[in-house]
Amino acid sequence: MRVLFDGKAPVDYGQIYVTSRELPNMEGAFAGQANGLCGAGCPGALFLMTGTHSGRVDFRIEAYDGEPPAATDAWEEVVEVSLRPRDAVVDLVPWGDGPLAQLRLIPEGQDTGRLPAYRVRYCATGMDAGSDPFGGLDPEEMDDGDYTYMDRRPDRYLLCFWPEGATGGDPSDAATRTDAILRQTSRAAAYWHGWAAGLPPARSLWEQVEAEQRRRLERERRDEEYRRRDELRRWGGRLPTERLRQVRGNVHGIVLLDRDLVDGVAAVDAGIQRQIAIWAARQAFTVAGIADLDWMAPAWTALDRGLPLPAEFADSRALWTRILGEPPVTFSIVSLRPAGFGPADPLGEALDAPVNPVAMALPALVAAGEADPLQAALEALWAAVSTYAARRNELLTDVRRAFPIVEERL
User: Fold this and answer.
1) What tens digit of pLDDT does each residue of 155-191 get?
2) Which backbone phi and psi does 156 adopt, to 5 degrees?
3) Are 389 and 274 in a shared domain?
4) Total domain count for the chain?
5) With contact defined as beta carbons under 8 Å apart, do 116 and 175 qualify?
6) What pTM value is reported for the model?
7) CB–CB of 330/320 below 8 Å?
8) What pLDDT does residue 158 have?
9) Range of the domain at 211
């Protein structure tokens, strides 16, 4: 016999645990058991009940190579359970705290490749006295601030481990037995045994697997529903085609403004999409008053010929500096409104705000040169819309007039 622990153990809420890894769940530990003092329903863990609600109780833990002698008459409560630990060393863990002691079930140096199943005997005495908050002491005779009664608890406990009898040649192959109440004396123990007996039966392994599968499928369903709702929001309430999903860049502004136009542009061939992109860029530059700059000619020529923009035209900030003779300055405007008092049409309000048309138009040129013709068309249209600002409906009408095939494809 080896003594694994012998001393005072703090308990709270009448609980203390032995665990290989995570702490056991109370109902899960006792479901399907006859006894309510030592719960072994959670894999690799024991849930131990005490008479003392809060305090420090005498606790002793022993390990045997074989079944120990029957508990002596000094122990008023005796129950047994079976345990399959997950590690050769388990922890004695008080409620709400870290491990109090490490319990080496297999002696150091012995092979721990295959852990045996263990039979566990939990013995208790004095549980009814321990259920008294003052442990039988008269609080009237105690000095104010005297909490020594917390360390003088009348109940004490013994926990014994030994390998289950093997059905073959290896203890790890042993068939575990059901739990058993070998002795019951106190009202406290009777209460916990009755509570355990009233729990729903423990679920079988297959039932647990099925329940986990249902939870996983439900999580996947919810995740897919959230993804679909988010996609609907980002795409203006209508799910996009796979082609639209593949588009990258700043396209969601035009999506929220005119989803029918987006679908029409997406439905035409790549050549028409490229023409729309160049048309939108020219419209934006015209409104900004910079379409006729002589030095811009190489950019328009490259776009018309389906060539990449020359490097000097691919940077909107550099173009701004060249046109206006000074680098751009970024301003941030913050609007503070009480919750629930935002604009009814935040996109429309943003587009109606005063803008610098040159700043809004320049991204249209870069957008028109994008490799993906659909992205080029949608980004250039959005830049043109931003340039037109409050006159944006003119642009939306003109693009349909210039490219009637867009409407025909809806």
Assistant:
1) 999 999 999 863 333 444 444 578 999 999 999 999 9
2) -145, 165
3) yes
4) 3
5) no
6) 0.54
7) no
8) 97
9) 205-234
